[in-house]
Each structure stands twice: as structure tokens, then as C-alpha cells.
Design goal:
The complex is a heterodimer of chains A (281) and B (114).
Chain A lengths: L1 H13 L5 H11 L3 H14 L4 H13 L3 H14 L4 H13 L3 H14 L4 H11 L15 H5 L4 H4 L18 E5 L5 E6 L8 H21 L5 E8 L2 E6 L6 E7 L4 H21 L1
Antiparallel strand pairs in A: 1-2, 1-5, 3-4, 4-5
Helix pairs in contact in A: 1-2, 2-3, 2-4, 3-4, 4-5, 5-6, 5-11, 6-7, 7-8
Chain B lengths: L1 H8 L4 E8 L5 E6 L5 H22 L4 E8 L2 E6 L7 E7 L5 H15 L1
Antiparallel strand pairs in B: 1-2, 1-5, 3-4, 4-5
Helix pairs in contact in B: 1-3
The chains are: A alpha+beta (281), B alpha+beta (114).
Chain lengths: 281, 114
């Protein structure tokens, strides 16, 4: 095992962009070197923030550290990125069982079984859970399967039931810098492209669901009432978040040259349009 | 560090300021009015900063330099930890605070805190 870790560390040092960090992190976790595993996983996540397996690895380490709340967030993120990620589904089932929500635990295991009907460990986990025994904490998917998992179709891509193009019709940047999502991170309208012109709509939508919840919790805890908007200045662009309805979230992204104040005005117009559109649905 | 926080709390409408470890959400230093739960705010601000950073990086805007959360009865303004060696500089303010001024003082405090 120690030799494996040395070899994997050397491989990662040679090619820091490679996915070998998944195997190294898992090897360290299994050896109980949780702090080292954590460092490997977080460094990997920095480089591959949209890789479901990276979130899955991080969640397993957090579970070993008994940080169940953050582990839940990470597995939740993994499922948002790759809805058929059985490791994350099993992880969520494990955590739901831990808090006594047997219905959710079983639902997640059933979902995992639909994806991998031939995996005996899922049947075993369901049987154990029905007997009142905790299903085992999920083990790692192999690093080799990571690309397939990462590229699994996301729910957001298949739920475009609305006529997205009409939400922001006539508004500047409607198809590359405006995004409307529901509370679960599913795209309702608009689209986003990054600086290289790649479509990042689904990925950003998945991350934003968590941002909205955190913003609401933070404002509530401080006794500041409902949150109205979040403006952020980035190195290469500025963003504004608003919620046209309690469930929906709107993101406006513009280049750095547009000041935050002007961005907020544009966001207000987009929010009003999104609200009207949502009311019509 | 307290000098850095002084710069921020001097601005009219600011109810408190904190330096927070971005990694674990713990308070490093604080100057808060009574009634503000510093520890909880720090934890949530760090968590929100982490999520926002990921969303912004995915959107191609790069790392966040400054963000503010506007609520009905106040605002939270933050200079994230990436530029300050993992320390978030956080201000809690009244709803009608001069955001531009607080932003400048937060950036100055961030420089002083490095």
C-alpha cells in the first residue's frame, strides 16, 4: 500500500492535471491518512471542479472524518453533475440512513440499482437497511471510470420542457450571459458561455443551487430578512444573482468592464422579465 | 489586524467586521456590535464564498475579488480569501451603507492583513 501511494504521488507530481489524484486520495483514505487524503482531494477539486468522482472522493473522506453535513453537500453536488453516479447515490443513502430517513435512503439505493442492476452490493445494502443495519459507506469508483461518469448526461440537459429562448427575448446577452434555474439547479431558461465560448450552462446551474441556499441561510441567521441579490466582482467578469420567485434563481454574467451598479440594473430588468415568464408557465 | 478592522468599522452603517479563515470558517479577528453571532456568520460566509468561487470559476469569470449579499435589512460584504492568503475580510452593514466605500476599506484591510 505504501509503495502504491509513493508511486501514485510520483505520477501526480509528474502530471498534476491527471486524474490519478482520485486513486491517490482513495489509497490515503483507506490507509487512514485523512488529512493527506483531504489535501489531495481538495487540490484535485481545484483542478477538476466539475468532476463528479472528485466530489465523491471528497465526500468519502469527509464521511470518514464524521463531517456528514459537508459530505452530504459533496455527494449532492456529484449527483447534480452526474445524476447516475452510483457512488454518490449510495453515499447519500448512507447519510439518509444515518439521520433516520429510511424512505430517502431506500429511494437513493433504488435509484442506484436502476443504474447498476447487476451490482450485488446495492441489493445487499437494501437488505441490510431493511433489517435496521446501516448500509456500508460507499467505496470508490475506479479512477478509470471517471471520464465516463463525469460525462454522464445531466438532468438539466433533459428537462428543457420550457421554451427557453423566450424567457429573456430582446434582452442583451440572452443566450450567453443570462441563466434562470429552479431551486434544484435545473435550467429554466437562458444560457451561459465561458470566455473560451464553451457552454457551461449546466455546470454553473448545478453550483448555483447551493449558492442560493447558503445566501438565504446567511441572511436569515444575521436577522437581515430575505436576501435580494448578490453581486460579485471576478478577475475576468462580474456576476449578479437574484431570485425572481422564492424558488427560482437568476444569474447575470458580464465582462469586467461593466460596473456592478449597471449590472444590478440589468439584473433587475431580467428579473422582472423572468418573473413574468414564470407566472405564465 | 485590529487596525485593519478599524478601517472598516469606521465607515458609517457598518455594524461589524471580521477576518475569517476561508478554509475552515473560523474567526481570526473580529470587531462586532452586540448581537451579531460572529462564529456562525464566519462559517456561513466561508461556505458561501467557497460555493460562489466554484460557480464563478465555472462561469469563466475567474476568482472572485469582492462580493456583497444584499438583504432587506442589511448587507454582508466580503473580500474573499484567494487574494489574501486564505483570509476572508467580512463586513456586516446596514441596508443603506455606502457599498463603494466599504469595498475600498475591505480591499485596504485585506492588503494590511496579508
Amino acid at each position: 500500500m505504501a509503495d502504491d501511494i509513493r508511486a501514485l504521488s510520483a505520477q501526480l507530481a509528474q502530471d498534476p492535471q491527471s486524474l490519478v489524484f482520485l486513486r491517490l486520495g482513495e489509497a490515503l483514505r483507506r490507509k487512514g491518512q485523512l488529512d493527506a487524503a483531504m489535501r489531495v482531494a481538495t487540490n484535485g477539486l481545484e483542478r477538476h471542479p466539475h468532476l463528479a468522482d472528485a466530489h465523491d472522493l471528497y465526500a468519502r473522506i469527509l464521511t470518514d472524518k464524521h463531517d456528514y453535513e459537508r459530505a452530504f453537500d459533496e455527494w449532492d453536488m456529484a449527483v447534480r453533475i452526474a445524476p447516475h453516479h452510483t457512488g454518490a447515490l449510495k453515499g447519500l443513502a448512507f447519510l439518509y440512513f444515518k439521520v433516520g430517513d429510511l424512505a430517502q435512503a431506500e429511494a437513493h439505493l433504488e435509484q442506484a440499482r436502476k443504474v447498476e442492476p447487476d451490482d450485488p452490493s446495492i441489493d445487499q445494502a437494501i437488505a441490510m437497511m431493511r433489517k435496521g443495519t446501516a448500509p456500508p459507506a460507499p467505496t470508490a469508483a475506479t479512477a478509470e471510470s471517471a471520464p465516463a461518469l463525469a460525462s454522464a448526461p445531466s438532468a438539466t440537459a433533459t428537462t428543457a420542457a420550457f421554451d427557453e429562448a423566450r424567457v429573456f427575448a430582446g434582452l442583451e446577452g440572452a443566450h450567453e450571459g443570462l441563466l434562470l434555474i429552479d431551486g434544484a439547479g435545473r435550467v429554466l431558461g437562458g444560457a451561459l458561455k465561458n470566455g473560451a465560448g464553451a457552454d457551461v450552462t449546466d455546470t454553473v446551474a448545478a453550483y448555483l443551487a447551493g449558492v442560493s441556499q447558503e445566501a438565504a441561510r446567511t441572511a436569515k441567521l444575521l436577522g437581515l430578512g430575505a436576501w435580494m441579490g448578490l453581486s460579485a466582482e471576478g478577475q475576468h467578469g462580474n456576476v449578479h444573482l437574484a431570485h425572481p420567485t422564492p424558488q427560482a434563481l437568476l444569474l447575470v454574467v458580464r465582462e469586467r468592464g461593466m460596473p456592478l451598479g449597471r449590472l444590478a440594473i440589468l439584473a433587475q430588468r431580467a428579473t422582472a422579465m423572468a418573473r413574468r415568464w414564470l407566472e405564465k408557465q | 489586524m485590529s487596525k485593519a478592522l478599524d478601517l472598516i468599522t469606521r465607515v458609517r452603517g457598518v455594524r461589524g467586521a471580521m477576518l475569517v479563515s476561508a478554509e475552515d470558517g473560523l474567526v481570526v479577528a473580529e470587531q462586532l456590535m452586540e448581537g451579531i453571532k460572529g462564529g456562525a456568520v464566519a462559517a456561513l460566509a466561508a461556505s458561501l464564498a467557497g460555493r460562489l468561487r466554484r460557480a464563478m470559476e465555472a462561469a469563466g469569470t475567474g476568482t472572485s475579488v469582492f462580493w456583497h449579499l444584499q438583504a432587506e435589512q442589511g448587507a454582508i460584504l466580503v473580500v474573499p480569501g484567494d487574494a489574501t492568503g486564505g483570509i476572508l475580510v467580512v463586513a456586516v452593514a446596514e441596508p443603506d451603507v455606502n457599498i463603494g466605500l466599504v469595498r475600498l476599506e475591505l480591499l485596504r484591510a485585506a492588503e494590511a492583513a496579508i
